[in-house]
Amino acid sequence: MKPESKTLYLLLAALALALLAVPSAILLDAVKSHFSFLDSLTMRSPAPAQKHISPAPPALRSGKLVFVAFTVKAPKAAKVALAGDFNEWDFSRGPLLKAKDGAWRTEIPLTPGHYCYQIEIDGKAGLDPSAAQTKQIEGRTCSALTVD
């Protein structure tokens, strides 16, 4: 073999080896970065579980819970809701369902005590027409309810 062809052959072999090594290095980096989440799983021990349980209100501890039925006659209404101090005056947390007779109904579990509430019919809040008592609270007149 001529020295020129031997040099050319060695040069081609080195070039081929370099070209083969580059994809392997790139592939190795890609695999390492893809599975890097495994390092975080094995490096540290898990944190201990913590329980934060708040005590139940006194009425619930006694086991007394009363389901109170609310009925509103508004057959032409599109939406009826109930809000009071039992649901933080949030009408979205007290929707009533329309029955076939046109009345709107719901049942809410309450502990014994005194409650104040309002009925919202199609976005307009007011008193419950069937409530026997009313009360002033925080500048608003509301229907009053006592649960025994």
Task: Give a description of the structure.
- It is a single chain.
- By secondary structure, this protein is of the alpha+beta class.
- The protein has 2 domains: 3-43; 58-147, Immunoglobulins (Immunoglobulin-like).
- The chain is built from 3 helices and 8 strands.
- It has helices spanning 3-34, 37-43, 58-61; strands at residues 66-73, 80-84, 97-98, 103-110, 113-121, 124-126, 133-137, 140-147.
- Strands 2, 5, 6, 7 and 8 form a 5-stranded antiparallel beta sheet that branches.
- The mean pLDDT is 83.
CATH class of the largest domain: Mainly Beta
- Identify the overall geometry: rod-shaped
Spans of at least 5 consecutive residues with low confidence: none
CATH architecture of the largest domain: Sandwich
The overall pLDDT average reads: 83
Helical content class: 25-40%
Give the tally of β-strands.
Answer: 8
Q: Do you know the CATH topology of the largest domain?
A: Immunoglobulin-like
Spell out the helices and strands N to C. Answer: HHHEEEEEEEE
Q: So, the CATH homologous superfamily of the largest domain?
A: Immunoglobulins
Helix segment count? 3
Report the span from N to C terminus: 111 Å
**Radius of gyration from the alpha-carbon trace, in angstroms:** 37 Å
